[in-house]
Amino acid sequence: MARSKIGNKDPTKSVIRQLSPQGLRNLTRKLQTPLARYFSLSEGVMFELYKAKNFGSGKWLNKVLWRLVIEARGSYYRYGDYPPLDNYDKKAVIYLVRAVYLDKATSTRTEEWLSLRFVPGNGKNKGVEDLESYIYKDRLAEYWVKTQLFDGDDEFLKYIISISRLCGIESFASRGAKSKNPDKTLERNNRFTPICFAILCQAVIQECVKAKKTIKYFTAQIPEELVQGFLAFKKGDKKYVPSFDSAADVLKIKDKENLKLDRSKYAYKFPLYFLKMKDLIWFIRMLLAENLVSEEVIVSYLKNKEAIKDIKEKDYISAGKLKGLGDFLTVKGFIKNSRLTGEKLRELAKAIADGPELRVMEFKKWSKSIQKIIQESETIDV
User: Fold this and answer.
1) Which residues pair with 97 in a beta bridge?
2) pTM > 0.85: yes or no
3) Where are the domains of the chain?
4) How far apart are CA 378 and CA 374, in angstroms?
5) CB-based contact 199:231 (threshold 8 Å)
6) What is the pLDDT of residues 98-134, one digit of tens each?
């Protein structure tokens, strides 16, 4: 299936309006048989695996799955208006998984989705975004991976796969729900992300083994809070997490605080994703306290008067309330009604810590940690 538009919008250039629960039901009605089915004995949930796109192909396998990937990536809109598709998709393999279960609170047949992209280092558009987004001692992380892990081998990228675009569709009532208005009472969230994530990673591991691809490392950009929170499978008093090893540790970088995100790319345009939320809030408080900008200036960018009160009182604010912060942090020249320039603002913003951390995961260790989650959740093929 060739790339196409939704209405008059190109999803490589524009954000796409997200579907309602009824729109999602209409879309999923057209789905074909999944690639595989799994059942978690411990959770009582059915999982259906789908492949939307193959490695190295510019074509999507199915228009419905293409639309579901775009829908899932709409979860990123809370961070800013970033188009759902990009050039890395052209050489990636992309999977989705659907979790289907009975919502106990409402007795409603419910489903939720998770999607993940796996980008090989070789092929057209050589390289992976993760290793091109971090710098240590004025060199890209790509250089350090090449020299420290591959003895300078110029072909090292063919042994690497990047994991990115983790995104999902919150739970909604499935087709055939008995209630007349099931979406009114159903709480929308994602309850089974750890198992969904493990199934998606298992799929690409199995594909690489079957195709005899010699993959030695996976890479990713991800905050530790996400690893220990949404991606952690909890069973009793135990917790099982994917082995997202710190790149600094794997590369034996002792001054790991100096392995940093290259902020010349997207960090200030999409600060709610690339910078640490707690530090962002502290930073705005500091600007206000030092009278570098006024509350009116901040409100003019955030377009949300309530956000100022939250900034003063809370350490965490929903991303939706701070969505205009990227426009504020990327101003060129003097900020309107302020004695501060955008350039000086970004110089001060260096005090804000990075949000995601660069990860480098050895293939066998990573595979073992994924398999552990599959085993502990008692997820079996059906």
Assistant:
1) 49, 114
2) yes
3) 21-251+357-381, 268-351
4) 6
5) no
6) 999 998 878 888 999 999 999 999 987 788 999 999 9
